[in-house]
Specification:
This protein is an all-alpha fold and about 80 residues long. It contains four helices and no strands. The chain has a domain of about 60 residues.
Length: about 80
């Protein structure tokens, strides 16, 4: 792809014209076990269509906090078809 970008002006223009998106792609990955906050989640979804998540257990697995509050992981598990 880099070869085409460097040597084909039309390809360079096409790539350069793609708008920047998903500025907070890692935001959710680092908060999976934190208390779910609907306002923060809705704000995230306004600017970020895809979130990079990890399969590693330290980043997920707790549906609720020690105080019994719903986590982001718990919210996603509860509100998606993927189990």
């Amino acid at each position: 792809m880099m070869l085409a970008y460097k040597h084909l002006p039309d390809i360079k223009t096409m790539i350069d014209d793609i708008p920047f998106s998903n500025p907070n792609i890692f935001w959710l990955n680092h908060r999976m076990n934190e208390v779910y906050d609907s306002a923060s989640f809705e704000e995230l979804m306004k600017t970020t269509q895809f979130c990079k998540l990890s399969y590693k257990p330290k980043h997920h697995g707790h549906e609720k906090t020690d105080d019994g509050l719903l986590t982001y992981y718990g919210y996603l598990k509860k509100n998606t078809e993927i189990q």
